[in-house]
Write a structure and sequence with these properties.
By secondary structure, the chain is mainly alpha-helical. It is 68% helix and 1% strand. It has a two-stranded antiparallel sheet with strand order 1-2. Strand 1 and strand 2 form a beta hairpin. Helix 9 (247-275) crosses helix 11 (303-327). The longest helix has 33 residues, at 373-405. It is globular, with a radius of gyration of 23 Å.
Length: 433
């Protein structure tokens, strides 16, 4: 009996002495499983985006358009591992990270971030770095050199995406410290990419013949399918941004279910009033507009507010898309009209509708401490203005530099023949005999 007591006490002493070592950074298998699934879902959004964009261009340019999305997976994944993650989440200062994690230095198979493996956290954030530059391509589809585009997304990701990601999501970032709400990427993903697309399409000019004669989508089946894949993947995009399988993820999940549905309805109502008929393209566009709107707000608004955000954003996006010819720019696939405008409304909407963990204009006493409703609204506007202006300035510099050195715009004969054959030496649709 005495030996058993000594053994028991020894085991208890061992646990008391060493349990902090095991408890610190302990893996939660449920959280880890959810985050690995979420990472796969966000990665799946990239081919979804490729189909969404690919169906809206002419058949002679579909492969080139698909490649604009797919190549981002290759280029930006390597960039993220080599330097992107370090610039985005390295300690650094208020505006940019440092070089402490280049080539993921400082991490190993046993490293833990929160309750998940650090490598899973890094991969999840890396999928955001992949899809954001790909969104830009929709604004200048059918008229740019592929090689220059590849260099563009590499430089843009390093000089625009990584710093803004640091501002908003890194603990040292100045917008993070200010308390700006961006649950899953309203400013970090959609605003800066939409505005970059607008800047680029204005600088390189309109497509040949636009708007003198209609340039019609060649396969809206692809576009609708792509929208469905994006909606599916967006559950990982938004709910995964909780970084755990918890109540915050549950709120983001239901809002990601609701807002795109409201967005689709809002877009189709606007289209019916304006053109007399609701279209499949309108349904797909409304879904994406609703998804963009709820992205920054997914973890801070209740479902009723998600419906309002989706409806309002889709209608506003429809108006901007309908007016783009009058504004005189050729945003080929409405990257700015949907992502730039939708991200802006969603980000500012956080300052109006947030009621979970934050105060806002409509819910000024949701939490006892933190920013007041008016202060939060002002912070949201400041975040939108700062990230938008930064994207405008740096994107302009990048585009002008590339255009003057390598040439950004494809040759006229290449555009007329189609970029699939001239840039990639192949065609999407081949007939035998």
């Amino acid at each position: 009996m005495k030996k058993k007591t000594i053994l028991r006490n020894t085991v208890i002493l061992f646990i008391l002495l060493f349990s902090p070592l095991f408890a610190e950074g302990t893996i939660n298998t449920g959280d880890s499983a959810w985050m690995m699934v979420s990472t796969g879902l966000v990665l799946f959004m990239v081919p979804g985006l490729a189909l969404f964009y690919g169906g809206m261009v002419r058949s002679k340019n579909i492969l080139g358009t698909l490649m604009h999305s797919i190549i981002a997976l290759g280029v930006m994944t390597i960039q993220w591992v080599v330097i992107g993650y370090s610039l985005a989440f390295g300690e650094g200062n208020a505006f940019i990270g440092d070089f402490s994690h280049i080539f993921l230095r400082g991490f190993g198979p046993e490293s833990v971030t929160g309750t998940i493996p650090s490598y899973v956290w890094i991969a999840f954030q890396g999928t955001f770095a992949c899809i954001t530059p790909a969104l830009i391509a929709g604004a200048f589809a059918e008229r740019v050199k592929f090689g220059t585009y590849v260099i563009f997304i590499l430089i843009w990701g390093t000089l625009v995406y990584d710093p803004v990601c640091h501002w908003v999501w890194a603990e040292a970032g100045w917008l993070f410290k200010d308390g700006a709400i961006d649950f899953a990427g309203g400013t970090v993903v959609h605003i800066i990419s939409g505005i970059a697309g607008l800047v680029t399409c204005i600088v390189i000019g309109k497509r040949r013949g636009y708007p003198s004669y209609p340039i019609l989508p060649h396969n809206l089946v692809y576009t609708v399918l792509g929208a469905g894949i994006l909606w599916f993947g967006w559950f990982g995009f938004n709910a995964g941004s909780a970084l755990a399988a918890n109540t915050s993820a549950g709120l983001a999940f239901i809002n990601t279910f609701i807002s795109p549905a409201a967005g689709m309805i809002g877009w189709l109502i606007a289209e019916k009033i304006h053109l007399g008929k609701p279209s499949a393209l309108g349904a797909a566009s409304g879904i994406v507009a609703g998804l963009v709107a709820i992205t920054p707000a997914a973890g801070s608004v209740l479902p009723g507010s998600a419906i309002i955000l989706g409806l309002i954003t889709a209608i506003c996006c429809y108006v901007f898309v309908a007016l783009k010819k009058k504004f005189g720019y050729d945003d080929s696939l409405d990257a700015f009209g949907v992502h730039g405008i939708g991200g802006t409304i969603g980000a500012i909407g956080c300052g109006i509708f947030a009621s979970v963990g934050y105060n806002s204009l409509l819910f000024p006493h949701s939490v006892a401490d933190g920013n007041s409703g008016i202060a939060q609204f002002i912070i949201q506007i400041k975040g939108v203005a700062a990230t938008g202006m930064y994207s405008i300035v740096v994107t302009l510099i990048i585009v002008f530099a590339l255009d003057k050195t390598l040439g950004f715009r494809a040759k006229e004969e290449d555009e007329l023949q189609g970029l699939d054959i001239t840039m990639h030496g192949e065609t999407a649709y081949n007939s035998e005999g």
